[in-house]
Amino acid sequence: MPFTPDLNYLRRLPKAELHLHIEGTLEPDLIFALARRNQVALPYSSEEALRAAYAFADLQSFLDLYYAGTAVLQTQADFHDMTRAYLEHARADNIRHVEIFFDPQSHTARGVSIETVFAGIASALREVRPTISARMILCFLRHLPEADAISTLESALPLRAAYADLWVGVGLDSSEQGHPPENFERVFQRARAQGLACVAHAGEEGPASYITNALDRLKVCRIDHGVRCEEDPQLVERLVREQIPLTVCPLSNVRLGVFPELASHNLGRLLRAGAKITINSDDPAYFGGYLLENYAQTATALGLDSGEMSDIARNGFTSSFLSPEEKAHWLAEIDRVEGSATAAV
Ligand code: ADE
Ligand code: ZN
User: Fold this and answer.
1) Residue 23 CB less than 6 A away from ligand 1
2) b/e string for 257-291 if b means 16 or more Cβ within 10 A?
3) 7-344: what fold?
4) Ligand 1 pocket test: which of 22, 62, 70, 103 has the largest number of ligand atoms within 8 Å of its C-beta?
5) Residues 201, 187, 61, 70: what is their CA dihedral angle, to the nearest 10 degrees?
6) pLDDT tens, 324-341?
C-alpha cells in the first residue's frame, strides 16, 4: 500500500538539484550584509521592506528585483559567501549533488570580472566536497543580444582548464517571451563544439514551440521548466519517448503565476505519463522554499506517494552530469532509503 511521504522520509532521500540560480539564493539578510560590506545603497529601508516587495505578477516583475539584488555582489568573497550560504541549506535538505546556474552578464555589466565570479563560486563548491558534489552551468541572458552571449563565452573559455572539475555546460535564462531559443543558435553551437553540455529554459512562460526549438536548434539535453509542453501533445509524446529531463520548479511556478496554485500543477500528470520529471527550487530565496520544501509541498498538494517521490529523486541523479558510477551509487542509496522505509511500515 503506497504511503504519502513525510518530511523525514523526503529529507532522508539523497537529492540532486539541477535547476538553481545561485543569484536567486541571496536572502535579504545577506543582501543587506553585502550592501554594508561594499557600501552599496539599497532602495529598501530594511530586510522586511525588501521581503514585502516579493509579490510577483510574472517572470519579468521577479527578474527586475532579482537583477537589482545582484548589485551587492562585487568581490570574490561575496560570490563565495553567497554560494556557501546556499550550500548550508543544501546540506540541511540532504542535497548530495547540485548543478548551479550563474549569470555572468549580470555581473560583468557592472564591472565585476568574470574571473571574480568563477573564482568565488568555485571556491565554495570545492569546500563542501565530498559531502556535496557540484557542477557549474554558465547561463546566457536571453533578453540581451546573441553577440553579448558570444563575447561572454569567449571571455569564459580561457578559464576552462582552471575549472575543468566544475564548469560543464551552458544554459539560457531570463525573460522568455519574445526571446526564442533560435536567437542563440550560434552561441550554443560554439559551446557544443567546445564540449560543453547544453540546457535551456523553455516553456516556463513561453510557448511549447520554444521547447521544440530548444531541442532541435540548440540541441539541449535537458529542458529547464518545460511545463507548457502539454499545449503540444506530440511534444509530450516526444519528451516521454526520448526521456528528456524536465527540471521543474513547482514553488517558482506558483509564485510567478505559471499555475494558480500547487494543486493545479501538471508535474504529477506528466510524471504519470512517463515524463522524466525532476523537482528543483529555481530561486529559493525569492520563492518561499528550498529543495526539501519543494518536494514536501508538491507531494502534499498533488498526492504523490513515496514511490513517486523516490522516482523524482532518482530522476535528479540520472538527469545530472555525474558519471555512470556516481549515478549508480546514488540510485543504490535511494533504493536503500526506500527499502528501510517500506520495511518500517
Ligand atoms: N533567472 C532566474 N530565475 C529565472 C527563471 N525562473 N526563469 C528565467 N530566468 C531566470
Ligand atoms: Zn530558472
Assistant:
1) no
2) ebbeebeebbbbebbeeebbbbbbbbbbbbbebbb
3) TIM Barrel (3.20.20)
4) 62
5) 110
6) 999 999 999 999 999 998
> Span 145-149, mean pLDDT?
98
Q: What is the pLDDT of residue 326?
A: 98
Please name the residue whose Cα sits nearest to atom 8 of ligand 1. 174
Assess whether the C-beta atom of 224 lies below 6 angstroms from ligand 1.
no
Name the average pLDDT for the chain.
97
